[in-house]
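Work Package 3 (structural annotation) set out to generate three-dimensional models for the target panel prioritized at the project kickoff. During this period the team completed the workflow that converts sequence records into discrete structure tokens, so that structures can be stored uniformly alongside our sequence database. As a representative example, we reproduce one entry of 300 residues exactly as it appears in the project archive.
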Amino acid sequence: MKSPSIDIIIPCYNVEHSIAKCINSILRQAEIENTLTLYLINDGSTDKTVSILHEFDVYENIYLLHQPYNKGLAAARNLGIESGKGELLIFLDSDMVVEEGWLSTHLTAIAKPGVVGVLGKSEPFRDDRSKLNKYLYHKKRGAGKYGENTAIPCQYFLFNNTSIKRSVLKNTGVFDERITKYGGEDTDLAIRIFEHFPQGLRYSAKALCYHHHPRTFQEFCHSMYLYGKNNLHFLLLKHPDHSKVLAGDYLQSFKGKLIFNVCIRSICLIINKVIDNYFVMRYLVVESVIRGERDGEKGV
């Protein structure tokens, strides 16, 4: 069977610490002879990212695209989509390093009947066992709990190590560029894909990459608070049928106020300082989102 042409789309914003490692790990893939093009989108970086990207100008299959200011992941990814013609789109975060066999695994998994998109596995870079990573990569969290090549729900389908057939976007549209701040742009598109192809999303642990994003658990919770404050209400209005997936049933209901309030939050914050418990950390993450939505301005 002939391999599809491939566009790999990598948004880049202030990633001088990781982008060269990311690109080089792709170029080392044994399947590089496939019709493969990399689109590196500089999203208004202010560090040395641009100068590092220019070091890869020598490759004929690497294109450097620029956005004049930080417009966000949705706009950056759309620029990559619009610039290419590949039958298969692969989205990768710029702070990820892919493992050997990563590309061939995506190609094999997405070629299976009925599959339109594949989410690969992410692991912490160099076995970083920070508190945040103990939460992010816990066995009870994420798409991994559904098993290899099993259909997964839309809320677990992120676009950080992900392949998708370009033809799918003719039905769903691309990323919503009204979402410019942290979080939600991938959930929005995943919901639209799921509505057209409810059995078409898969997970593969064999499509492995290592994620190097140094931040604390507290910083992650703050990011989730901002997602709740800036974007969650917009998603709830756009996808009312998926309110439960988006935690909408906890926002202003009696149940939500009983569970997510300042008293329980304070207790969990104290416990979290003493032990690393997945369920306590999960509570604090979800509470951050809900508190953000409650404090939000109700719009993007």
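The chain has two domains: 6-211, 217-295.
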